[in-house]
Amino acid sequence: MARTAIPGRLTWRAATVTAVRDETPTARTLTLDVPGWPGHLAGQHVDVRLTAPDGYSAQRSYSLASASPTVELTVQVLADGEVSPYLGTAVKPGDQLELRGPVGGWFVWRPTDPAPVLLVAGGSGIVPLMAMIRTRAAAGSRTPFRLVHSARTPADALYATELARRTRDDAGLDVHHVWSRTAGRLTVATLNTHGWPPDFAPACYVCGPTGFVEAAADMLVALGHSPRLVKTERFGGTP
Amino acid sequence: MAIVSPGFHGRRRADPDLPPGQYLTTDFPVLSAGPTPRVPADRWQFTVTTETGAATTWTWADLTAMPARDVTVDIHCVTKWSKLGTTWRGVPVSAFLEDVDTAADYAMAHSYGGYTTNLPLDDLLDDQAWVAYRYDGDDITPEHGGPVRLLVPHLYFWKSAKWLRGLTLMLEDSPGFWETAGYHDYGDPWREQRYQGD
Questions:
Q1: Residues 118..157 of B with a Cβ closer than 8 Å to A: which?
Q2: Hey, is the C-beta of B26 within 8 angstroms of any chain A C-beta?
Q3: Is A36 left (phi over 0), alpha (psi -120 to 50) or beta?
Q4: What would the pLDDT profile of A204-230 be if each residue is shown by its tens digit?
Q5: Which listed CATH number (3.40.50.150, 1.10.645.10, 2.40.50.140, 3.90.420.10) goes with B23-28+51-191?
Q6: What is the pLDDT of residue A105?
Q7: Residue A59: which of B3, B32, B80 has the nearest Cβ?
Q8: Is CATH 3.40.430.10 the classification given to domain A117-234?
Q9: Do the Cβ atoms of B37 and A218 come within 8 Å?
Q10: Closest alpha carbon to A61 in B117, B123, B72, B183
């Protein structure tokens, strides 16, 4: 098991929204200015705290979508959510919120890791995996990357335009989409065709809703991947 | 530092049953770091190992023959969800320690699949911790840690190791899996001990 010491206390920092961009009709990316940000690893997350005028506060965790040192969060709006509708529709440039992190030393990819990488994303579970793709590009890494991304329809797919550009420009990155509304759920055959052979001992990162992650991780193990090389993270959107 | 978001109102008022920073959920989210191990109950074993290496092992048949308790507890995940009034059946951890000769102050829980988490031994005694094998009136499913998981509801739920296979008693504290990755060594939700240094 990887050992990553994160010394010291994670303090709440003031973050200012500097830009907001729509990703899909129900998801937005917030770019944040966070003075003193220590940098992060691809795959880490942050805690966000919102405080209402009456003092009520709520916290949620969000994966970082960007390569360090840029701090970007992609928020999928859940209609009955408490925090995501505010971050995903109301917040605007100049607004402030509190943030602490980065958190998590397990579901991370480092450009110095030599193994080929298989990313398996379900829906908005692509967010921390996109941070890995962006970190790879920012570092000039040649590590072979394959992404299998399952989304309901092309209109639901986060980062589709950027991924199309990167597939063309980032040598060694392959992207395969599964449109689940028409093609059905992710299958073993798809992971077998668009993943890596287990003999290559790829580092596998699986992120998405629980059912998706359970199924995809089981398929990878059934295909012969060592469970030790399959890292999982649940990310179904947070309310 | 108090930054107020004028447009944010929140839906819920403070709930006295919720530790700080938690929100209420009625489903049962899953958090784990890798594929779910499938451990058939008839091959499950649980081993307590002391600081001198003395080991005692129980099987599924041993476990389910021991006096069990039905408990209703609130559970709090460090990822911010809390679930109230969950019902479990299990054997108190202290029942496995009665005949164990130890001077240890800490324990490392070990799981099938390689997961570990550290706890003070005192937090495993009395009516605080169980070796649980039923949830909500049924077998515990693999994704929720079945056939057998640790249940230590007064600490964040990552301390309630899924797929439990053993406890190693330790004279000194030592970080487990998430604790090594930046999470708190103790993990009291009421003191919001999420991360190292909290």
A1: 143
A2: no
A3: left
A4: 999 999 899 999 999 999 999 999 999
A5: 3.90.420.10
A6: 85
A7: B80
A8: no
A9: no
A10: B183
